UniProtKB/TrEMBL annotation:
Residues 11-83 form the O-methyltransferase dimerisation domain. Pfam families: Dimerisation, Methyltransf_2. It comes from the Bacteria. This is Methyltransferase.
Length: 330
């Protein structure tokens, strides 16, 4: 391909984003399952226009997402497999979330972020993403499901890399629907889990069927974190906020935290090299959607920890590109 063609394909990137969102909404990968499906069958199952559906699937399989067989038939491959709702490493909700009005309208306003440093979401909707979701339960629910997709993939590996069995209580601060916590509790039945998040989020909490092991606390982690535990988790939290508010969260946590307790910050890490990574995508996404949100380097996290009264103990890189950054109070 010529440089011009390469650049044109890059600029068409949002076509693929939109197709993936539709494919996931229609559950096409789930419908295909382990078989080979004709486009007629898929159109019937999803009540879609057969020719339009074919054109979209033909386009995606040219990018190695699904395999097109003879006679307009399709089967799954390793890439389409993760679009299945039922896949262990599913990103079905994640793709649907990226097709939501919140993401599209925010990213359409990227220029505002680049010119002003403010979230594009604010220019599109008047508020940042968390404020927006307070008044839009449907988007909030889609967002929580997208976080669950990520939490599930992490939860499957986190337990192999970190020993939770030595703790009596584990508190997930800003734990969303409690997906990660319920994985930890299921594997460590002696642990009591505490889920802390905003009132409108915990109202819709995922029910792990182990209620006596699971306490839910509603609150605002920028005001007070009234939770006493042996271990605290902040997963995908600090990257949403500017340094000042990260300091506020860490200091409030430090105030309530027993001396023996540990804190796990679970985040992507940026480095200075020029290779493309999830952290680079997410850093831009934080710029667009969150008020001061950004991805950080390990040095930035360590400095932030020291300022709030924590010592960095260890960094454990996970195969999901996330990292467990363990702190303890000084
Ligand atoms: C990016 S999500 C991460 C969710 C979860 N920790 C995970 O890793 O899947 C950020 C979470 O922070 C919560 N949150 C945002 N502002 C908050 C606040 N002021 N007080 C408590 N929780 C808040 C959101 O409701 C959301 O569940």
């Amino acid at each position: 391909m010529t440089p011009r063609q390469i650049m044109m394909h890059k600029v068409y990137g949002y076509f693929t984003t939109s197709c993936l969102s539709v494919v996931c909404k229609l559950e096409l990968a789930d419908h295909i399952g382990n078989s080979i499906c004709s486009i007629e069958e898929l159109a019937d199952l999803t009540r879609c226009n057969e020719n339009s559906l074919y054109r979209m699937m033909h386009f995606l399989s040219s990018q190695d997402i699904f395999v097109e067989e003879d006679n307009r038939k399709f089967r799954n491959n390793s890439l389409s497999e993760v679009l299945k709702k039922t896949s262990e490493s599913s990103i079905n909700s994640y793709c649907q979330g990226h097709g939501s009005q919140l993401y599209w309208e925010s990213w359409r306003n990227l220029e505002h972020s680049i010119r002003t440093g403010e979230p594009a979401t604010k220019s599109a909707f008047g508020v940042d993403a968390f404020e927006y979701m307070k008044s839009d339960p449907e988007t909030a629910s889609t967002f929580n499901k997208t976080m669950d997709d990520l939490a599930t993939a992490d939860a499957n590996v986190i337990q192999k890399y970190y020993d939770f069995s030595k703790f009596n209580t584990v508190a997930d601060i800003g734990g969303g629907s409690g997906k990660l916590l319920s994985f930890i509790i299921n594997d460590n039945p002696k642990i009591k889990g505490i889920l802390f998040d905003q009132p409108h989020v915990v109202q819709n909490t995922f029910s792990p069927n182990i209620t006596n092991q699971f306490e839910v606390v509603a609150g605002d982690f920028l005001s007070d974190i009234p939770v006493i535990s042996d271990l605290y988790i902040l997963r995908h939290i600090l990257h949403d906020w500017d340094d000042e508010r990260c300091h506020q969260i860490l200091s409030l946590l430090r105030e309530r935290m027993p001396k023996h307790a540990k804190l796990l910050v679970i985040e992507l890490l940026v480095n200075k090299d020029s290779t493309l990574s999830t952290a680079k995508y997410q850093d831009l996404n934080m710029l667009v959607m969150m008020n001061g949100g950004r991805e950080r380097s390990i040095q930035q996290f360590e400095n932030m920890g020291i300022k709030a009264g924590f010592k960095l103990c260890q960094v454990i890189p996970l195969p999901t590109e996330m990292n467990i950054i363990e702190f303890q109070p000084i």
